[in-house]
Specification:
Its cofactor is Mg(2+). It contains five helices and seven strands. The protein has 198 residues and is an alpha/beta fold. It is globular. Bound molecules: guanosine-5'-triphosphate and magnesium ion.
Length: 198
Amino acid sequence: MRIKQAEFVTSAVKKHQYPELGLPEVAFVGRSNVGKSSIINAITNRRKLAKVSNTPGRTRLVNFFNINGGAMLVDLPGYGYAKISKTEQAAWGKIIEDYILQSPFLKRFVLLVDARHKPTADDVAMLDYFRYYQKDVLVVGTKLDKLKRNDIRKNEKIIRETLGLAPEEKVIFYSAMTRENLQQVIDTVFAGILPEDE
Ligand SMILES: Nc1nc2c(ncn2[C@@H]2O[C@H](COP(=O)(O)OP(=O)(O)OP(=O)(O)O)[C@@H](O)[C@H]2O)c(=O)[nH]1
Ligand SMILES: [Mg+2]
């Protein structure tokens, strides 16, 4: 799978603002600062397509990116960022939930977890939520470059156990920095959504 074209389409908060091109959507979900915006830049090979920051809470809207004219990648706000008010956290939660429940074109979720850490209760709740709504889920462990080689197997086991993944459910560890396993991420993210021979 080759990404030939990528462009920002729009930012939205409410359903009437979502794009209506009818393209299948893949949404990136995860804690604040886990690397949701970075994975969109890595996949599209564009450094500044999605806004990345060291300050958690950078993405505050639902951002849509058109890929090869045939699919949308969706960058969502992160959850679990403690330094914002409860009211604001609830507002973000609602933006994420509305999108998950209301987008008619959403085909797949990519749950991002930090490859170094045990998933949080929020991550587990998110995954349960996707399962309940019978959405297709792929788990990606981010920041592989920061993980010691010796810890990879051990951490994958902890992540699988904490999230309760079945053996056939995939976890891919990757790095946006070194691009290790990036092609595998791209192929899996778009499997069944964009033609493979592109
Ligand atoms: N070393 C390393 N740093 C990464 C990687 N992916 C993301 N980062 C860094 O992690 C920080 C957060 O990345 P973002 O992509 O903005 O995270 P986000 O999940 O979009 O964050 P919010 O929008 O706040 O929810 C930035 O400083 C990135 O450069 C990676 O694979 N390796
Ligand atoms: Mg972001």
